[in-house]
């Protein structure tokens, strides 16, 4: 089945989730034949929930311990999305589209649709999610900027909101995406680390340490005392990354079917910006949907 999507593409419903055609093609390819390295770490998320930040942090944390000295130069020169390849696009096109010395791969694929090879191997998954209202507003702006860069009128916000509330978004329904990883994280806590954007914002240092520990490259006492954690947090902050030349307008992310400017991945980086764009009624409606969908799961997303 096909439905009208949010950005000029039809979305296809496949195994309970919606996909733009190029992502569905990529997903089917990796479901068939992707083999992770047993040491791989997957950065998983629904789009617009903090993927870019988490990629930057995991990349910086990993490279600081194994490839000393190259962290800063890499993140200064390369967009976080070009440091960590996307399973259903970059690796679907060519499995060798990665640097094997860096065991990081990202994915937006819902847990239940991941290639079985990932589930059954010993590789780890770090999942990030976010308040649904902020995720929706972030998504709408991202798609609107993308459409406008192609001189196409964006879908009105109200229309996009209606679709989102009906579960229609790339890799949506949003709540099912979150629930899939949440339940799996309860079942396999050593394999899956479940994070929220809001908690990461509140205490980034504690989360950077938690990430390092989960990834198997904890900060040493000397590193902590030497300010390494703070250095990484600052390097990966919204202010720092969004002001880097490589992340500003004009630089296009490599390899995507739709040319995406790097700057589109950096908008405000704040919690609660939804209130500047949605009416209180729209906010209450999405809260109500999320509450009903998450009921009984034990998960309460911070707002
Ligand atoms: P907003 O649109 O609310 O500003 P993703 O990376 O999953 O595409 O999510 C994009 C969202 O993360 C955007 O949110 C973007 O501004 C925010 N973001 C990008 N880099 C960030 C960073 N280093 N720290 C915090 N938020 C960041």
UniProtKB/TrEMBL annotation:
<feature type="domain" description="Sulfotransferase">
    <location>
        <begin position="39"/>
        <end position="298"/>
    </location>
</feature>
<protein>
    <recommendedName>
        <fullName>Sulfotransferase</fullName>
        <ecNumber>2.8.2.-</ecNumber>
    </recommendedName>
</protein>
<dbReference type="Pfam" id="PF00685">
    <property type="entry name" value="Sulfotransfer_1"/>
</dbReference>
<dbReference type="InterPro" id="IPR000863">
    <property type="entry name" value="Sulfotransferase_dom"/>
</dbReference>
<keyword id="KW-0808">Transferase</keyword>
<comment type="similarity">
    <text>Belongs to the sulfotransferase 1 family.</text>
</comment>
<dbReference type="GO" id="GO:0008146">
    <property type="term" value="F:sulfotransferase activity"/>
</dbReference>
<dbReference type="InterPro" id="IPR027417">
    <property type="entry name" value="P-loop_NTPase"/>
</dbReference>
């Amino acid at each position: 089945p096909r439905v009208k999507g949010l950005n000029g593409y039809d979305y296809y419903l496949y195994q309970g989730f919606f996909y733009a055609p190029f992502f569905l093609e990529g997903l089917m390819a990796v479901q068939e034949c992707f083999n992770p390295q047993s040491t791989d770490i997957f950065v998983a998320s629904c789009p617009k929930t903090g993927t870019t930040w988490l990629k930057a942090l995991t990349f910086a944390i990993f490279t600081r311990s194994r490839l000393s000295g190259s962290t800063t130069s890499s993140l200064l020169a390369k967009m976080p999305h070009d440091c960590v390849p996307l399973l259903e696009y970059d690796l679907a096109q060519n499995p060798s589209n990665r640097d094997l010395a860096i065991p990081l791969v990202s994915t937006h694929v819902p847990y239940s649709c991941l290639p079985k090879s990932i589930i059954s191997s010993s590789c780890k998954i770090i999942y990030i999610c976010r308040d649904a209202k902020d995720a929706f507003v972030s998504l709408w702006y991202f798609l609107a900027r993308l459409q406008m860069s192609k001189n196409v009128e964006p879908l009105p916000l109200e229309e996009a909101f209606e679709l989102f509330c009906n579960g229609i978004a790339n890799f949506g329904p949003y709540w099912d995406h979150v629930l899939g990883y949440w339940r799996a994280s309860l079942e396999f806590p050593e394999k899956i680390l479940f994070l929220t954007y809001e908690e990461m914002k509140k205490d980034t240092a504690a989360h950077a340490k938690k990430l390092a520990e989960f990834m198997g490259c904890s900060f040493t006492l000397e590193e902590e005392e030497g300010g390494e954690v703070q250095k990484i947090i600052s390097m990966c902050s919204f202010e720092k990354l969004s002001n880097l030349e490589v992340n500003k307008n004009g630089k296009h992310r490599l390899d995507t079917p739709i040319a995406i400017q790097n700057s589109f991945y950096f908008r405000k980086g704040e919690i609660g910006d939804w209130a500047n764009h949605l009416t209180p009624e729209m906010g209450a409606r999405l809260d109500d949907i999320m509450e009903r969908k998450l009921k009984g799961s034990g998960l309460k997303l911070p707002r």
